[in-house]
Specification:
Helices cover 26% and strands 19% of the residues. The strands form four sheets. It has a seven-stranded mixed β-sheet, sandwiched between helices. A two-stranded antiparallel sheet has the order 4-5. A two-stranded antiparallel sheet has the order 7-8. The chain starts with 15 loop residues before the first strand and ends with a strand. It has one domain: Aminopeptidase. It is built from five helices and 13 strands. A hairpin with a 2-residue loop joins strand 7 and strand 8.
């Protein structure tokens, strides 16, 4: 297979990249789908290399926005080192889409048998070598913040395609959340004040997902959090990424200063009735 010139399999990237590790832990930026790279030995998972230019491999533009936020907020940012096609860091370990076999019309040949029932050794290797190190790093950042006397706010950055299955998506940005609305609620209101801004409230996706990154590190730990989805055509280039980081950073600073945001509070979860809820 001839490799597309814009894609080359990775030759040494770690499972994650930690940007500005010594920054102020009052905010923690995450980007679960930052990279389209693959570890040595995986080739292109049997896909045409051009597929790695698509959203199925990474959240286009989200890494640039995350780096911009890390700089403007002077906070750490945790970026995925490998493509979501290898393993999806924004899923629970028992989620059937943890290793995708089919994504937006593309069959991923090398993932065909990678699950807990078939090629279990490869499945567990990806979890051990990629998935768990990323989540251990994020958990460690939260622990470090708490040890320093700071309850952090987790900002999870993603992007979405302008259209899906032939239907145009009107939103410029989507704010995803479960039951903890400490950041999401006022963020939706604040963004809707921006001229021409169309904001999705749990659109184009639902924010309550059992076992995902924010369920694990935000909901279960009682840490205020929000997932931000920006439409990809708005952040395709560095200019767009910088503009969105510049728009969001001061809003996040404003919202994080509100009463109750920097408290550990459990709101429960629509995705899991057993998730803890703090007494009123």
């Amino acid at each position: 297979m001839t490799e597309h010139p814009s894609f080359a399999p990775d030759t040494g990237t770690a499972p994650f990249e930690l940007v500005n590790p010594g920054g102020n832990p009052a905010f923690l930026v995450t980007c679960d789908h930052a990279s389209r790279l693959l570890p040595p030995g995986y080739g292109s998972l049997g896909l045409p290399a051009s597929e790695f230019d698509r959203h199925i491999a990474s959240d286009i533009g989200a890494a640039g926005v995350s780096r911009g936020l890390s700089r403007l907020l002077d906070c750490p940012a945790l970026l995925a080192g490998y493509s979501r096609l290898l393993i999806d860091l924004n899923r629970g370990e028992d989620d059937p889409t943890l290793v995708m076999k089919l994504s937006d019309g593309a069959i991923i040949p090398a993932n065909r048998h990678v699950d807990a029932d078939n090629d279990k050794a490869e499945f567990e290797a990806r979890i051990d070598q990629v998935f768990r190190p990323y989540h251990a790093a994020l958990g460690g950042l939260i622990d470090r913040a708490l040890a320093a006397g700071t309850v952090p706010v987790i900002l999870s950055m993603h992007s979405f395609t302008p259209s899906w299955r032939g239907r145009s998506r009107p939103w410029k940005v989507g704010i995803l959340w479960d039951r903890d609305d400490r950041i999401a609620g006022p963020l939706i209101g604040r963004l809707r004040e921006e001229p021409g801004m169309i904001v999705g409230d749990n659109e184009p996706y639902e924010g309550a997902l059992y076992g995902d990154c924010l369920f694990r590190h935000g909901t279960l730990r009682g840490i205020a959090h929000v997932l931000v989805e920006i439409r990809q055509d708005l952040i395709m280039d560095e200019e767009g990424q910088e503009a969105w980081a510049a728009l969001l950073a001061p809003i996040f600073q404003e919202l994080a200063s509100r009463p109750g945001v920097r408290e550990i509070r459990h709101f429960g979860s629509l995705a899991d009735p057993s998730a803890p809820i703090s007494p009123k």
